[in-house]
Structures are given as C-alpha cells and as structure tokens.
Amino acid sequence: MTETLHIIGGGMAGSEAAWQAANLGVPVTLHEMRPKVGTFAHQTGNLGEMVCSNSFRSDDSEQNAVGLLHWEMRQAGGLIMATADTHRIPAGGALAVDREPFAETVTAKLKAHPLITVEYGEITALPDDGHWIIATGPLTSGGLAAAIQAETGADALAFFDAIAPIIHADSIDMSKAWFQSRYDKGETEAERTAYLNCPMDRNTYEAFIDALLAAEKTEFHDGETAKYFDGCLPIEVMAERGRETLRHGPMKPVGLTNPHQPDIKAHAIVQLRRDNALGTLFNIVGFQTKMKYGAQTEVLRMIPGLEEARFARLGGIHRNTFINSPTLLDGQMRLKSKPHIRFAGQITGVEGYVESAAMGLLAGRLAAAEIKGETLNAPPAETATGALITHISGGAEAKTFQPMNVNFGLFPPVDLKGGRKNRPARYKAYTDRAKALWTVWLAG
C-alpha cells in the first residue's frame, strides 16, 4: 500500500499540495487547525480561505511573471487556479475572485476526493517519521513555530503583514466616484469598469496625508520589530517615507478620467476593487493599514465618495513568519536536518497567494514522486515555478533573505537587446521559453 502523505495547513499551498499528490495516486491526510484554533486574520474554517485580498494579480501570461505562474499552474491541473477561474469577478487585467464561494469550493473538492482525508486540530511538534509537508503559512501557530525554531537552531524571521478595509458598495457616493479600470484595461465592458475610483485634489490629498500620519497606530509588543514586506506596506508606512509616496503608489492618478469633471486632472485617486460576485463589497486597493479602528473610519471617510462609508471589515495587522529557506531547505524543498519533512507556501519565503499555491503544487508533486519511488527533479529555473524554487533553495542571499513575489528578475536572462523600448519583446521571450520548458517538465 502506498504510504500516506501528511500535510499541515489547509491554505493555498497545503490545499494545492494535497490535490496534486492525491491526483498522482498518493493518499493524503490534510491537517488543519481551524476552526478549532483560530487566527487573527481568518474568518472561517474553510480551506483555501483568502485573508488579505481577493486578487491573484495579473493574468497576462505573455508579459507578466505572475500571469505566467497562473498559466503553469493551469497546465498542471491546479486546484487553486481552476477554482479561481470558476469564481472569477471583473478586475481589469487581474484575476480576482469572489472569496467566500472560492474557499467553499476548494473545501468541497478536497473533501470529495477519494484519496484525501481532512483532519482538524493543531499540530505543535515536528513529526519524527513518515512523509510530511508543512504549509502553515504566515500565521503558523506558536507551538509549531517554536518546534521549527528549536530544530533549525535559528531565530524565526518575521515581518508584519497588513490587511486592507472592505466597504459596502451602497455606502459609496457615486456622484463623486466612477467605474473605470486604469487605461481601460480588459476585453469586456465589465473588465474595463472593474474598479471604483475616488479622486482627490491637492488640498484634499495633503489633508489626508496629515491625518494619516497623525492617526493612532497599532502598537507592537515588546521585542517585536516592524520588518515589513515592501509589496504589502501599510499606507501610513508609505506616507512616512515621503508625502508623495502614495501618489506614486496605490493613489497614482494616471490612466483614469473622471466623467464628473473630465477637464480636471485629479491630484491623486483611490481605487476600490470588487470583493464579491454580487458587487456589494469593495476593498480599497493597496490600503493595507495598521491604524486603530476608530482612526481608520475617520481617516478613510476623508476620501471623496467615502464620506458615509460603511465598513464590512476594517484593516488590521498581524505577525507573518517565514524560515530562512536558502539555509534550511534542499532543492527538493526538504528540511536538510529532517528530510522526511518538506516546507511549502508562504512560510518558505515566497509572497502572495499564487506563489504560495505554486510552491504547494511543486511540493505535492515532489513528495508524491518520492513516496512512489520515482525520481522527479525540480522544474527548470527558466520557468516561473522553477525560478521560485531556485530562489528559495539557494538562489537568494541567506543573510538578507526576504519574502519575494515572482518576477522576471529571478529568471536566467534572455539574450535580447534593446533596453526599455524592447521590454515587451523581452518579456515575451521569457514567457515563451518558460512555457516550452514547463510543458516538457510536466510530460517528463
């Protein structure tokens, strides 16, 4: 009888790992501590629950590394991408989903699989034998985190991750806001109007920055240091880096025209993205925050169009842990000191839903091959999945290791000249090469 693969954590990585291994004929037991043991960020006990955003980011597989990762996972029969496609909602050129039915479908599919058993309860110690994948994500429980730290002999790295607020759509003043995706991106009218936009003139923007900087913030506990991942900075941290930072980040006014005042160019624009299929909830794009709840409502209602906003969820901040993978993991994602244990997902130092799921997909396939007595090498570094595993298993500098989104900077260069003007051709060369190599890897 084939040995069982045990997976700890039912988030993006654990869910995908379970699906991949089971579809390769390996029995899987998926261990999830929720709902028996909750976290700050999760709202349910569903597998694959999305906590920070409902977006998988760009779906462009020819010009974007994230979109390429989407393509690779779809080709590999990925559960996360198939479910995302089923529950897709308009988001311009991005892939966004209706988060609640998404997680419900992931949960139902895993529980219906004949080779997958879901067990609920917290695991606080590293197993001594068997085949295991730890995919507990950024909110690994204290007991298990302590066990990992004791085994690795190194301090757990940590940064702080912030969550953006969600607003009821019917509380937004549409005499000031309008629907438009930046540069009218999208093939359909729904895609081209996937975002709500709230414009600010210079005086409103300056007053907003003043209030943001003065607002009460969440305090850290003794001994905690604020090491943020640059891709998920709280808005107040960005504002502290310079008064114009937000205007060149999530509040940039380019590519948008206000139909209420078409002749007036906004100084800054706040965008909101649909958070569910009904269009009744919108999240504020890039507005992760550590402001206290009272301050949040006051400051965010300074945004034109949101003066009467009702919040379905306010923003928050939580601790986010990851291991120093370049030091601790081998090229098969195994813990060097205990090779019967693999790590996958965000705890390995990749950042984002898609990247986490991709590492789960790979870990599930590698573990299944090992259990079946087969040899499976990691995918080539020229693929998006291969670039990520290469980065976390030795490509990154261990001393400065930080969570990383997939990007073309992680890929071996293509020999194509032309500078910035030739960037589209260069990105297409990256993705063409990756797709060919990924297809060969899957077939092999």
From TrEMBL:
The keyword Metal-binding does not apply. It catalyses: uridine(54) in tRNA + (6R)-5,10-methylene-5,6,7,8-tetrahydrofolate + NADH + H(+) = 5-methyluridine(54) in tRNA + (6S)-5,6,7,8-tetrahydrofolate + NAD(+); uridine(54) in tRNA + (6R)-5,10-methylene-5,6,7,8-tetrahydrofolate + NADPH + H(+) = 5-methyluridine(54) in tRNA + (6S)-5,6,7,8-tetrahydrofolate + NADP(+). Residues 5-374 form the MnmG N-terminal domain. Its EC number is 2.1.1.74. Its cofactor is FAD. It is found in: Cytoplasm. It is an enzyme of class 2 (transferase). Its main location: cytoplasm. Signal peptide: none annotated. Keywords: Cytoplasm, FAD, Flavoprotein, Methyltransferase, NAD, NADP, Transferase, tRNA processing. It holds the Pfam family GIDA. It comes from the Bacteria. FAD binds at residues 9-14. Belongs to the MnmG family. TrmFO subfamily. Catalyzes the folate-dependent formation of 5-methyl-uridine at position 54 (M-5-U54) in all tRNAs. This is Methylenetetrahydrofolate--tRNA-(uracil-5-)-methyltransferase TrmFO. The gene is trmFO.
